[in-house]
Amino acid sequence: MTISKERKAELIKTYGKNEHDSGSAAVQVAILTDRIKELTEHMKSHKKDFHTRRGLLMLVGKRRRLLSYIKGNDINEYRELIAKLGIRDNIQ
């Protein structure tokens, strides 16, 4: 259920300012989005896995808070990020 080192490095390179920028909000959102997609696929076949469901909901909440932070600081960066990741704009 975790992301491989190679995949994480690829996400950091794509969404970060450089190869070592793993802490910026955009990179964190990209990594969380990748994990959320994996867990969503897992939940489709394991409907009664409530421990994973709780973890998934916690990840979604964390991503939502990070997106809210990005939207508050730079609306253009927010719009570009959600367009790249293919997620909906539902942050108030």
Automatic annotation (TrEMBL):
InterPro entries assigned: Ribosomal_uS15, Ribosomal_uS15_bac-type, uS15_NS1_RNA-bd_sf
GO biological process, one term: translation
Domain of life: Bacteria
Gene3D superfamilies, per database record: 6.10.250.3130, S15/NS1, RNA-binding
Gene Ontology, cellular component aspect: cytosolic small ribosomal subunit
Pfam families for this protein: Ribosomal_S15
PANTHER family xrefs: RIBOSOMAL PROTEIN S15, BACTERIAL AND ORGANELLAR (PTHR23321), SMALL RIBOSOMAL SUBUNIT PROTEIN US15M (PTHR23321:SF26)
Function according to Swiss-Prot or TrEMBL: One of the primary rRNA binding proteins, it binds directly to 16S rRNA where it helps nucleate assembly of the platform of the 30S subunit by binding and bridging several RNA helices of the 16S rRNA. Forms an intersubunit bridge (bridge B4) with the 23S rRNA of the 50S subunit in the ribosome.
Protein name: Small ribosomal subunit protein uS15
Lineage, broadest ranks: Bacteria, Bacillati, Actinomycetota, Coriobacteriia, Coriobacteriales
